[in-house]
Amino acid sequence: MIKAIVLIQSDAASIPEAAQTIADFEGVLEVYSCAGDVDLIAVVQVSRHEDLAELVPGRIGKVAGVLNTDTHIAFRSYSKADTEAAFNIGVD
């Protein structure tokens, strides 16, 4: 699976509607509104790079109010849960 983080700039008046529309797309795991240089952050997971190409510019980029997207593909996870699971392999 391919996981990516999509940083989304949106028209301020459209943030709630854009966020909900994006959250409803297949392949979108979570959408966060946030402060800073971007208005929304979407965490997406798809099977193929072609699916990512369809989702981000093909769907997210066309949502009313979305001005710009910046996609970052994740290579490896360093979450606490993943680290603990790795150290517990084979332990019953």
Automatic annotation (TrEMBL):
SUPFAM superfamilies: Dimeric alpha+beta barrel. It holds the Pfam family AsnC_trans_reg. One of its GO terms (molecular function) is DNA binding. Signal peptide: none annotated. Residues 6-76 form the Transcription regulator AsnC/Lrp ligand binding domain. It comes from the Bacteria. Keywords: DNA-binding. This is DNA-binding Lrp family transcriptional regulator. It comes from Crossiella cryophila.
